[in-house]
Amino acid sequence: MDKKAEKFAVDLLQYLNDSPTAYHAVENGAALLKSGGFQELKETESWSLQEGGKYFVVKNSSALIAFAVGGGDLSKEGFRIIGAHTDSPCLKIKPGPCSITADGYVKVNVEIYGGAILHTWFDRPLAVAGRLIVKENGALREKLIKIDKPVFMLPSLCIHFHKDVNEKGSYNKQTDMLPLLCMKEEDVEKEDYLFDLIQKETETQKTDIVDYELFLYEYQKGLFTGKNQEFISASRLDDLSMVYAGLCALTQADRRTGCQVFAAFDNEEVGSTTAQGANSGLLRHILNRICKNLGMTDEEYFQAVANSTSVSADLAHAVHPNYGDKHDGETRPILGGGPVIKYSASQRYATTAVSAAYFMKACERAEVPFQKFVNRNDIAGGSTIGPALSGLTTIPTVDIGAPVLAMHSIREFGAVADQLYTREAFLSYYER
Predict the structure, then answer these.
(1) ∠ at Cα 121 (349, 276), nearest 5°?
(2) Helix ranges, 334-377 (H)
(3) How many beta carbons lie within 10 A of that of residue 216, not counting itself?
């Protein structure tokens, strides 16, 4: 394994392991930005931006936009934007009490967040993390929690009671996907089981908790695999690997002209139409505010936008060794082959020949290989934040991503080399 790629992948694994939810991904991303000299701004406060300044803004604790104000005339240099997303498919705990069966099992009530591959969640120790809204000295405040212990389990039904599971495996999301917490305990009300766990592990009193947003995640940490340790197996590669690559590129870029921007949005897996999602006014408002704060007119703002480019970074589908026929016969990206440029005639991806060209140039400058992906005509495939970024800002956008297998599994599978390739491509794009 290349030592430089290995070092970057080790750091990426640490970021993934430390970031079980979008809230933690943003908290850890903010720490990385601060260590790189970026100053946090608040939407509710006045800004005073300076040329050469480096700043970031957090929205809903689950999205952030960071930017570095470079030299030159911003109206002519424009913005260079990279966007990614902080959320991943998972099990989200519903409000309300746990359920207790007639046989004394205590189960937590969950709903499915995003397009998870459900069978991958069975028979794996699960931990819990998220945020609480708590009362403190008469005011409400947010508290992030991470109970990094194997607390929950979703046991499979044995094959003897489900003999066609290998032929007709399917799951009822309401009844089959309820993880086991414990056995019934004497004198414990069913609404107290989850709160007792939170109180014990976080020293937060039940009476102080007003509400919560909690998610289950795989307890086992990411790791390297393969004969030469060339592969990476981990939860939340989609899309925290692109978030990490973008954050690293922004903090490490040297040549700064115009304005370099990195945006990590939430809720991509459920459509992006939230205040902190890509399909909102968040990025457009921040770009406008940057220009106005730097003394630019409306006309100069519109010029800056017209001179801007954007990269939407979300993982791409590598050809699967056992399901090669699911791919187009000619565009067949592989693990280790570099970032993938994604095309779609139906505009499920925002890539055009123009936007693809500027990303290809960035890869060539960085001596990074790149690949291309188009869906089979009879498989619709997915979408991502690119169309929203392009449509809302009118900025040309290319959809790209590191190739991956097992996308939306509880554990996704990629190549170590592609992680560094992507970071290097982003760095080149910022420093054009």
Answers:
(1) 45
(2) 353-366
(3) 25
